[in-house]
Target: 4'-phosphopantetheinyl transferase domain-containing protein
Amino acid sequence: MTLAAGPGEADVWILRRPWTGGPEHELDDRERKRAGAFVHPRDRARYVSAHVALRRILARYLGVGPADVRFGRAPCPRCAAPHGRPVVLDGSPGNVPPPHFSLSHGHGVALVAVASVPVGVDVQRVPSAATVEVCSPRLHVRERADLAGVPPERRPAAFARLWTRKEAYLKGLGTGLGRGPAADYLGDGDAAARPDGWLVDDLPADPGYAAALALRGSDVHRVSLRGLPEGWTRHADPAAVARREGDVMIVDDGFPNGVAEPI
Model:
């Protein structure tokens, strides 16, 4: 069955540890080269797991095999060179435009967001107080003021929520951190001061983590969290796994209020 993210909808797919790697023949030459460059087997398995998952998820939207998904880059919004957001080059059957997507992985969880509009997703572990102190000067001046008003014991979690929003937005924009983190306000103090034309908000996350989703537009009315079963990336027939009742969890709710299930 081919999946679709319709207007006003976004799907966020969740893949947790253990990182088991996956069939590297589903990756392209660039991805295999990148995987081979990792020194630690754990890092290689994490990279392969995340990218096999990304290909298998997108293949369900495109109606092709995972190895047939072709990636490119959108023009950079800063200089128009071809190093902007990663994009799918081929559409679905019937000349349906390819979906937009975003991948984030690290510290035990990977997220893949799929939508009909430019999208960014990010997940991070809550940092130490020392890391917050070092990184806070990079924030927007109003974000620094907001953070200073948070009690010290809650500041790392508040910083993590803010930073994941910022990274999700910059991924969706296509600049990454090439656009300075201080350029945009994504704090809680004044929603009207946030970037025009984007919805950016937190996703529910496990204790010790923060996650966020950014979508271009203002008409989003449904976000689905879809959990992938353990070992999904190493399974020989991922479509069969996904079809089994109970293996894929779908939660629908309004955005930006979020969903009830944690990541």
Observations:
- Helices lie at 29-36, 41-62, 129-135, 141-148, 155-173, 238-243.
